[in-house]
Model the fold of this input.
Amino acid sequence: MTPFNRVSFLILFFLALSLQPFLAQGGDVTGKKAAKSHDLSSVSPAEPAPQYPSMQSPGKKVSIDKDHYLIYGFDKKPKLGTVIMKLEIYTQDGKKDTSFEVLGDSGMPSMKGAHETGEQLFRLSNKGAYLLPVNIVMPGDWEIRITIKKGGKVVFRGSHQFDV
Ligand SMILES: [Cu+2]
Done:
């Protein structure tokens, strides 16, 4: 080896040494990144947010499926305080059907996160009506979102909007 070659060899040697941790770290970081993005991708196929189409007015027939419809209303015109929402489910021949599970989530669409109750179960009355107390805590725009299930499966979603 000529002196020049020896110097350049040493430079390359130390360069390689000094690069090694950097390269190793780089490899580690990309490894973590890959693992992270893998984790995210396994969570990311998020279900689309459920839609709650507006139902017809209180007292009107609202179709659930080809064999059932519902009629809903309130014990009084909604105002500040507690109102009871009443919902009855009928078969097409007009017989009450109490084999469903009815859930309601009330809140103010203009104040997201402020008053939502989360899904609350309607209680079946001894007359076969599904009942849910709704607390109207301030004037403004309100919405009740209804979910109806049969055997644990959602068969209907709908909403009722009103002003207080
Ligand atoms: Cu509010």
Summary: The pocket of copper (II) ion is lined by residues 108, 111, 114-115, 138, 140 (CB under 6 Å).
